[in-house]
Amino acid sequence: FPREHEESKLDQANDDNNNNNNNNNNNNNNNNPNLVFAMKIQHPKDPLMETIIRSAKLHIYKRGGKTDASNESSSFDSLMEVNVYHVTAESNTSETKRTLVDTKIIDFSESGWVIFNIQQALQNWLDGPTKKDGLLRLQLSSKACTKDLHRIFQVNRLMKRSLRDQEPRLNVKTSERLILGRVKRDIHTGDCEKGDGETQCCRFSLKIDFKELSWDDWVIAPTSFNAYYCEGDCGSSRLANDWALVKNLIHQANPEKMPVGVCCVPNEYKGLTLLHYNNDGQLTLSEKQNMVVQDCRCR
């Protein structure tokens, strides 16, 4: 059974402007606020166990105020979409790659904490080669000008002592579990791709445009999102819980007693924040629950 603990202490967070490249080779991204966390998550000593990231929340404090963004880059005054990217080094090159982790539509006119879900990015970091230096690198991006982002978000480690309680922080919950089987994953996304030869239960990308749903007449932003879906065979790997294990064993031993085996299905979801018109025709910001598949398991 998992032994769960919480690691909430932030070892390092700063403005890191040393990244010279990204996957788009867009120099404007070099000046975006960067966060660098020194992580201390270790793999279990027992080779039959693995570490699972149960939850990873990035907390960043924002200071309210008017931005300098033009009307063209900010369609709804203080409301703006902010993205968090996981920055990783490309193999055998000096370039870096940015992978979108989470997106929030934020009201810049109000002060307060903003929470981003970076669970998948941290799991990829833990499983991939980028953990060798112990640093998790994240980057903030928005249509706002970069000086607005640096001013609004408290990301500078060398801030005044009175503002230290507003430093970015990363709350992480992990657990250890017995390895029942490993699924081949892309180290940058943590997902499988069509044609990569993977046959076991896995999460695949599913980009959906709101025009396809005929929702574009009331949903303003985002215009599209990645809903993901689950597909693959269920043997003894990716089992959701002990009941799934028992169900699978009974089905294999006696199909008449248990005619239906385990299936690859969504095991966890997350909501999607929408900027939309409500029933009264007013522009509002709300979260629609269970819109994005977070994890796939056999159950």
UniProtKB/TrEMBL annotation:
Location within or outside the cell: Secreted
Cellular component annotations (GO), alphabetically ordered: extracellular space
Pfam family, one: TGF_beta
Keywords from the named record: Disulfide bond, Glycoprotein, Growth factor, Secreted, Signal
Keyword Signal found: yes
Residue spans of biased composition, Basic and acidic residues class: 1-12
GO function terms (MF aspect): cytokine activity; growth factor activity
Residue numbers spanned by region Disordered: 1-34
Family annotation (SMART domains): TGFB (SM00204)
Top-level taxon of the source organism: Eukaryota
Compositionally biased residues, Low complexity: 15-32
Ranges where the TGF-beta family profile domain occurs: 182-299
Transmembrane segments: none
Family: Belongs to the TGF-beta family.
Record-linked PANTHER family: TGF-BETA FAMILY (PTHR11848)
Protein name, per record: TGF-beta family profile domain-containing protein
Source organism of this protein record: Octopus bimaculoides
